[in-house]
Design goal:
single chain, about 290 residues, mainly beta, Neuraminidase, 4-stranded antiparallel beta sheet, 24 strands
Length: about 290
């Protein structure tokens, strides 16, 4: 797909400066807007914070909420510019948090989930609904929030996700998963008809890997995938035409060995990236 100046395919470039964080776990991130994210991470005090990017520097907005139960594997989904849904393997539940411009606070009741130890994924389908899956139970589910309580909508789909999988929402009824065993990761889309989940289109092989993967949506039909590891620490972009996935542009080497990366799409051309090995929050543009 042509999209950059001069008729060339777009390419990833790093923008702005790094923001160092102190953490010992994989971050749960969600884009609140084209310039802000929510990030929950494990450190001295398990913290949830809002961070703003002005095109050059990252900065903390308001106060961080301490003592958020941030497990080594966590996930977050943005329901609005001031509300997220969060889950991690320490508490095995869904919890909603609101930001009032200065402080974070819990909203409504927590929803208990089956215990899990693999990577969880949350994707916001709308301002009140999410998709959820984890690498232990491997069941793709939709949940709805009425302002007080979470409840499951429709039936779960058993998906062979693997403990190092990643899922992301594309539309209010479509998600994409980086699924399969560590040795054979594939991209697969799934649709929800109001009751059941089903696969959509063809799966595309990502290749052989022994690494954690992460996926972020840029648009309803474009995603970016990243892996950790000494040889696979790259960004790779794909478009979906409703049937098939195709790579857009070339792989972009991050230039360092990553560990348990997390990414979130901030706009059609920008992602936020952080990994457990280097503990730096970064921005990349696809131009």
């Amino acid at each position: 797909m042509m999209g950059a100046a001069g008729g060339k395919d777009p390419a990833w470039v790093k923008v702005g400066n790094d923001f160092s964080r102190t953490s010992t776990g994989r971050a749960g991130m969600a884009a609140l807007s084209s310039s802000t994210i929510a990030m929950a991470h494990r450190g001295t005090n398990n913290r949830l914070g809002k961070f703003s990017f002005d095109g050059t520097d990252w900065s903390l907005v308001g106060n961080e909420l301490d003592d958020v139960s941030a497990g080594a594997q966590s996930a977050a989904g943005a329901l609005s510019s001031s509300r997220i849904c969060y889950s991690n393997q320490s508490v095995d539940s869904l919890q909603t948090y609101d930001f009032d411009g200065t402080d974070w606070s819990t909203t409504g009741n927590a929803f208990s989930l089956p215990a899990f130890g693999g990577s969880p994924s949350i994707g916001a389908l709308s301002s009140t609904t999410i998709m959820f899956i984890d690498g232990s139970n491997e069941e793709l589910k939709k949940f709805s929030f009425d302002g007080t309580d979470w409840s499951q909508t429709g039936n779960a789909l058993s998906a062979t996700s693997g403990t190092r999988s990643s899922f992301e929402a594309l539309t209010s009824s479509r998600v994409v998963g980086l699924v399969g065993s560590d040795a054979a990761k594939t991209l697969q889309a799934y649709d929800f008809d109001g009751t059941d989940w089903s696969t959509t289109g063809n799966a595309t092989s990502i290749g052989t890997t022994t690494a954690y993967g992460a996926i972020a949506s840029l648009t309803s039909s474009r995603v970016v995938v990243t892996f950790d590891g000494s040889s696979l620490n790259k960004l790779r972009t794909f478009d979906f035409d409703g049937t098939d996935w195709s790579q857009v542009g070339e792989d972009f080497s991050l230039g360092f060995e990553a560990g348990k990366p997390a990414i979130t799409g901030m706009s059609e051309t920008r992602i936020a990236y952080v990994d457990m090995e280097n503990d730096k929050l970064q921005a990349y543009d696809f131009i």
